[in-house]
Amino acid sequence: MIRGLVFALALLLAAPALAVQPDEVLADPALEARARDISRELRCLVCRNESIDESNADLARDMRLLVRERLLEGDRDDEVLAFIVERYGEYVLLRPTADGTNIVLWLAGPAMLIAGLGIAVVYLRRRRRAPEADHKALSDQEAARLREILRE
Q1: So what's the pLDDT on residue 135?
Q2: Residue 5 pLDDT
Q3: Each residue's pLDDT tens digit in the chain (152 positions)?
Q4: In sequence order, what are the residues at sequence separation of 6 or more whose Cβ sits closer than 8 angstroms to the Cβ of residue 68?
Q5: In the chain, where are the structural domains located?
Q6: Please, which residues have CB within 8 angstroms of residue 46's CB and are 6 or more apart in sequence?
Q7: With b meaning 16 or more CB within 10 Å and e meaning fewer, what string describes 5-15?
Q8: What are phi and psi of 64, to 5 degrees?
């Protein structure tokens, strides 16, 4: 029983390592290391939040092969990334750049947090300064009616 659990856990932990097939691995260890580094930065378009290095999808395999092909042609890492982004769009990057139109997305979160905190501060200050509500005591008739209701 425990052996089965250990084996299942080992398979789950090794699953990302099984994504790169033996026929994809480059003969040059330095080039292979570069290919793996680049592949970890690229999003699988099928699996969404998984890198192509971890994904078993056919498209991820095609992208891994494309990365290796570009490296064999002598491209630098940034040139390979630029080629992939040009081909598949900036969404393919797991860590998008913080320039151009993306700057709006990078700044929107902190700006909304600051705006929310500002609204909360203004609300709390106005609430503190507001006059307290005038609570009148119950009249004799209201008190009698309340006692009657509570007895029922």
Answers
A1: 78
A2: 60
A3: 677 665 655 555 554 445 666 666 777 788 888 888 888 889 888 887 888 888 888 888 889 889 999 988 888 888 999 999 999 888 888 887 777 777 887 888 999 999 999 999 999 999 888 887 777 888 899 999 999 999 87
A4: 24, 26, 31, 35
A5: 2-92, 102-151
A6: 55, 57, 58, 59, 60
A7: eeeeeeeeeee
A8: -60, -45
Q: From CA 80, how far away is CA 66, in angstroms rounded?
A: 9
Query: Distances in Å between the alpha carbon of 80 and those of 24, 57, 140?
Result: 17, 20, 86
Residue 82 one-letter amino acid: A
Task: Domain 2-92: give its CATH code.
Answer: 1.10.8.640
Spatial separation of the C-alpha atoms in residues 41 and 93, rounded to whole Å: 6
Q: At what angle do helices 29-40 and 58-72 cross, to 10 degrees?
A: 130
Per the structure block, which two tokens stand in for 36? Answer: 């793996």
93's torsion region: left (phi>0), alpha (psi -120 to 50) or beta? beta
The phi, psi pair for 42, rounded to 5°, reads -105, 135
